[in-house]
Write a structure and sequence with these properties.
Collagenase (Catalytic Domain), 259 residues, alpha/beta
Length: 259
């Protein structure tokens, strides 16, 4: 009897350890997307965020910029916007952040990232006020969650998790139906950035002169211009599209969908 009890306890402890290890591995999986990154000759990378948002979004943009700048390899600075928020055209060497009523198209926010080879050259973030003007999404929690996540994509980060029905991971890079605890980056996001930006390059694509060669323009508000679907979340909806512009130039578009 004693031997049977000891064996049972051993099995339970072993299984508990396995579950814990599996959970930890799942929660801290690699969430770089293809190694895409801004080329730079020194760390930290200083990246400009163009403020093309209205006053309703300014505080959320500021918090996101401060949060991401806690990274040891990345500093963001908010500068005057250079794009019409309705079109939110990309500007070489920086990320334009815009809000407007983009219509009942299903998405809360999109991040579009231009790349030359594996080097990011410019990006845009669009926040869809058609939905943020509704009771469900017109909350500080939803606004902070989406702006944090979409800006995070422009650095080379993917989602840590794309399941809506599991516990929140405490990061804005996690899909969720209730983002109360997912409004900011977490430690693993900063660690992932350190991995992505561990090496240095010979050029700086945050320089508009260098980046301008890969600045082909597309209308990111038009879903037909996002290109082919290359990834779906666990709820069956697209989460990432790729538009091949030829000669090693691509545009990637990440999507946060409304319910």
């Amino acid at each position: 009897m004693t031997h049977k009890l000891s064996w049972t306890l051993f099995v339970l402890v072993a299984l508990t350890g396995f579950v814990f290890a599996f959970t930890a591995t799942t929660a801290h999986a690699d969430h770089s997307w293809g190694g895409y990154h801004w080329a730079r000759t020194t760390n930290p990378l200083t990246l400009k965020l163009g403020d093309d948002v209205t006053s309703a979004w300014d505080s959320y943009l500021q918090v996101a910029s401060t949060d991401w700048s806690l990274s040891s390899v990345l500093d963001t600075t908010i500068v005057a916007g250079r794009s019409n928020p309705k079109t939110c055209r990309a500007v070489a060497g920086r990320v334009e952040v815009c809000n407007s009523k983009y219509g009942n198209n299903g998405w809360l926010g999109i991040a579009s990232i231009w790349a030359s080879g594996t080097h990011i050259t410019q990006g845009t973030v669009k926040l869809n006020d058609t939905y943020y003007n509704t009771a469900k999404y017109n909350t500080p929690v939803w606004r902070q969650f989406v702006v944090c996540q979409e800006i995070g994509h422009t650095f080379g980060l993917d989602h840590q998790d794309e399941a809506f029905d599991n516990p929140n991971l405490g990061t804005c890079m996690d899909y969720t139906s209730d983002p109360f605890t997912n409004q900011h980056p977490n430690t693993h996001d900063y660690e992932m950035l350190e991995t992505i930006y561990a090496h240095l390059d010979t050029i700086n694509t945050s320089s508009s002169v260098v980046a301008s060669a890969a600045s082909a323009d597309i209308d990111t508000s038009n879903r037909s211009e996002w290109g082919r679907e290359i990834k779906r979340s666990r709820d069956g909806r697209t989460s990432l599209h790729e538009r091949d512009l030829g000669r090693g130039q691509k545009v990637f578009t990440f999507v946060v969908w409304a319910d």
